[in-house]
Amino acid sequence: MILISSCLIGEPVRYDGQHQLKGNLKTLLEKGVAIHACPELLGGLPIPRPPAEIIGGDGFDVLKGHAKVMTQHGEDVTPMYIEGAKRTLALIEKNDIHAVILKANSPSCGSGEIYNGHFDGVKVSGDGVTSALLKQNGIQVYDELNVPDTLWSNCDMI
Ligand code: SF4
Questions:
Q1: pTM of the entire structure?
Q2: Which of 58, 108, 119, 145 could be joined to 130 by an S-S link, Cβ 3.0–4.6 Å?
Q3: Residues 6+ apart with CB under 8 A from 6
């Protein structure tokens, strides 16, 4: 079973109430080989919500208490991001998930690259809070831009 970011399968859960549908990923859900989750909703955040970025590091730094997730208006939403990450990990452990495909660049779901914390559209190396917690627990995290061919093969997609 695979876990996919809810916004990638067309759920309107992004901060702006929109989605980021990738049809090929939604097909995995329809075939019954994937489930979806949105860490920010699992952490208790609403739709819509102000955009947020990690200030002072990346998701690993947030988990260590060395960085924060702040909204564009200066509200500290770090506890909700950590809670969402923990709930996503629990969902993975409960559902025998062996692969995770999360939305690129998000402060929760981003993997390898996130926004720099200045709300200026510039990206830096790093992971979102949920991706960091999953990686800490030995889970392989992909984003929608780097799903490996082997994963599609395993799902009979090619
Ligand atoms: S990127 Fe992750 S946290 Fe953000 S809306 Fe999509 S699933 Fe939710």
A1: 0.96
A2: 108
A3: 13, 36, 37, 38, 41
**Which two three-digit tokens encode residue 10?**
């067309």
pLDDT digit string, tens, across residues 97-129 = 989 999 999 999 999 999 999 999 999 999 999
Give nearest CA residue, ligand 1 atom 5.
14
- What is the domain extent for residue 22? 2-154
Say whether 98 sits in a helix, a strand or coil.
coil
Name the residue among 13, 15, 37 with its Cα closest to residue 101: 37
Q: Which of 2, 3, 4, 6 to mutate to test the pocket of ligand 1 (most atoms within 8 A of CB)?
A: 6
Pocket of ligand 1 (CB under 6 A): 5-7, 13-14, 38-40, 103, 106, 108-109
Q: How far apart are CA 82 and CA 121, in angstroms?
A: 23
State in Å: Cα 81 to ligand 1 middle: 11
How many domains does the chain fold into?
Answer: 1
Q: pLDDT per residue over 56-91, tens digit each?
A: 999 999 999 999 999 999 999 999 999 999 999 999
For residue 141, the cross-strand partners are 100
